[in-house]
Amino acid sequence: MSAPATFLDKLFDQGLLYDSGVDGLYGRSAVFEDVISRFEQLALNLGKDEISEAMVFPPGMPVPDFKTSGYMKNFPQLAGTVHSFCGNDHDHMGLIQCMAAGEDWTANQKITDIALTPAACYPLYPILARRGKLPEEGAYVALQSYCFRHEPSKEPTRMQMFRQREYVRVGTQEQTIAFRETWKQRGVEIMELLQLPHEVDVANDPFFGRAGRMMGVSQREQELKFEMLVPVNDGAGPTACMSFNYHMDNFGKAWGITLADGTPAHTACVGFGLERLALALFRHHGLDTAQWPEGVRKALWG
Amino acid sequence: MSAPATFLDKLFDQGLLYDSGVDGLYGRSAVFEDVISRFEQLALNLGKDEISEAMVFPPGMPVPDFKTSGYMKNFPQLAGTVHSFCGNDHDHMGLIQCMAAGEDWTANQKITDIALTPAACYPLYPILARRGKLPEEGAYVALQSYCFRHEPSKEPTRMQMFRQREYVRVGTQEQTIAFRETWKQRGVEIMELLQLPHEVDVANDPFFGRAGRMMGVSQREQELKFEMLVPVNDGAGPTACMSFNYHMDNFGKAWGITLADGTPAHTACVGFGLERLALALFRHHGLDTAQWPEGVRKALWG
Q1: Closest residue of B to A115, CA-based?
Q2: pLDDT in tens, B79-118
Q3: Nearest by Cα to B270 from B230, B241, B233, B236
Q4: Is residue B252 part of a domain?
Q5: What is the ipTM, given to two decimal places?
């Protein structure tokens, strides 16, 4: 007797995702993409009167800015750097021979200027810093990017390459905390509109190593991170489909983003895990979007 | 006297692209993205009655399939592999110290299972191969993917991370050659609709090294690759905004894709360089889309 099909198996069988042979790396069908773009439109409409700017980033960011972010300090296990062949004809012959012999062929792969973006808002901060002091009203930016996290998994919600849509608020402590509270409420409204079971809870990022555990505890105690949790995977705990983050003035200090009065800016962001939200919808409303509840279809397709 | 602003400067000044500090790595504005998605819709409509399937891929593909593609043999200088930290707490302390001292910190960055996708159709072939023999009618797939090529440049059309939309035909020699001819014609029709100066010419890929030069010559002689050329950049030659490629049965053999009769499949693809097409439109019709010719606006926005 074969094991019952997992949720991931069903997504492959239905042709919603395409298996690549690498866990967490999947092609998306046209139907899956349509759900994502409809959700993006819904989320974009909610903030359209407030944003100062909208940007879409490519999947990579400059290595110097990536270093400034502290990501290699806090989450080195998840980070991805882009390496390219830097050799001559002779080195290339060696590479081909190693590859043919099944040996390590990566000796001449050297780091480029590009790291894969770990969170959609990271490329924004250096852009704001280069503009000089923020205006009184701060910045309120809508973003989207492919992100990378090196954590191969059979849980369909834990992809290695996935998209985040974000709103980012940069300004005073009051502005950024108010922003985060507004979006926690809007997040709940979105989940009710989409008829998905949900719960908002305090959370922490997966900081690396022994020292990292203390940082996670501190992040929870200060209530810097909240997540919108939805049961999606077989058996496992619920999945964070949105997150609501207040970074205090950490990023303002790291990148040198300053308020009109010259003090470091505070930042906050709300992130929507686009693939995770699509998967939550398929999990709870079925694999055929035509059969989804009328209210959900109306919210997405109008 | 300062030098006259380049096309790239103007794109930054107008807020259509955002500079990251790395050549060929730019954020896109909402307006830039809208032009891209409108062009995609135009291109998708042209093939909608013919396709058997539509897929969107993440920006990476499995390393084993990447090796099978021969890309490291032919274009090692352009390829990007994804590397992650594979160490313990102690190694991590070393990494942080190297980074702080401005030394090389990449000793523990090891290759993952993922390479950045060099062309949108590469992740498709292994998926087709795993399905077994093709049906009589072959396959006709619409695709989209972010692609990576390591070629930093000040030419705005030569981005390191960019998107390709493709149609791929997999089948007999007759099917694939007929497909390519149809799309060469449709490519011209699209350029006329968009009122862009254009020329179709035979071309070759930038094969690496001395041996590579011979391959380029052979590819031209066999007329395997045509490009849709449009003047876009300051001074430099015209830019390939579309390409029309016939791979013979090379990919069919490499990945083991077989026809119903058991022989290796032939493949052909048409690729649209989405950022390049958007840049061509901005170059020729101006930086304000509201001022574009009425026929162009109608073709894109309906």
Answers
A1: B82
A2: 999 999 999 999 999 999 999 999 999 999 999 999 999 9
A3: B241
A4: yes
A5: 0.96
Chain B residues closer than 8 Å to A82 by CB: 80-83, 116, 148, 150
Contact yes or no for A123 and B27 at CB 8 A:
yes
CB of B60 less than 8 A from some CB of A: yes
Question: Which of A96, A116, A136 is a domain's end point?
Answer: A116
Phi, psi of A271 (to 5 degrees): -115, 135
**What torsion do the CA atoms of B130, A12, B149, B73 make, to the nearest 10 degrees?**
-20
Whether B30 and A210 lie within 8 Å, measured CB to CB: no
Residues A44 and B30 sit within 8 Å (Cβ to Cβ): no
Same domain? B89 vs B223: no
Interface of B with A in 215-234 (CB under 8 A): none
Q: Residues B149, B281: one domain?
A: yes
B12 with B44, same domain: the answer is yes
Distance CA B259, CA B257 (A): 7
**Two tokens at A250?**
């950490």
Give chain B's largest Cα–Cα span: 69
**In whole angstroms, what is the distance from residue A140 CA to residue A169 CA?**
5
Cα gap A80→B59, rounded to integer Å: 13
Cβ contact (<8 Å) for A81 and B109? yes
The residue out of A116, A141, A165 marking a domain boundary is A116
**CATH assignment at residue A134:** 3.30.930.10
Is position A2 within any domain?
A: no
- Domain interval for residue A185: 7-80+118-301
Quote the CA–CA distance of A238 and A231 in Å, as a whole number.
4
**Does the structure show a pLDDT above 80 at A165?**
yes
Which residue shows structure tokens 């003035």?
A: A249
Q: What angle do CA B153, B160, B150 make, to 5 degrees?
A: 85
Any domain includes B1 = no
Q: Do B62 and A21 touch (CB under 8 A)?
A: yes
Same domain membership, residue B145 and residue B108: no
Residue A273 and residue A163 share a domain: yes
Based on the structure, what is the number of domains in chain A?
A: 2
Residue A1 lies in a domain: no
Please give the residue of chain B at the shortest CA–CA distance from A212. B89
**pLDDT tens per residue across span A270-293:** 999 999 999 999 999 999 999 999
Residue type, A59: P
Residues A108, A198 within the same domain: no
Q: At what angle do helices A294-301 and A30-47 cross, to 10 degrees?
A: 70
Mutate: best of A14, A18, A32, A215, partner B, most B CBs <10 A: A18
Token pair recorded at residue A171: 């300004």
Residue in chain B closest to A93 (alpha carbons) equals B73
User: CA of B243, closest CA in chain A: separation in Å?
Assistant: 22
Specify whether B173 is located in the same domain as B137: yes
The partner residue sitting opposite A20, judged by closest CB among B29, B61, B89, is B61
Residues B110 and B258 in one domain: no
Q: What is the pLDDT of residues B115-159, one digit of tens each?
A: 999 999 999 999 999 999 999 999 999 999 999 999 999 999 999
Look up residue B151 and give its two tokens. Answer: 């070629």
Chain A residues 28-57 within an 8 A CB cutoff of chain B: 28-30, 32-33, 53-57
d(CA B15, CA A105): 42
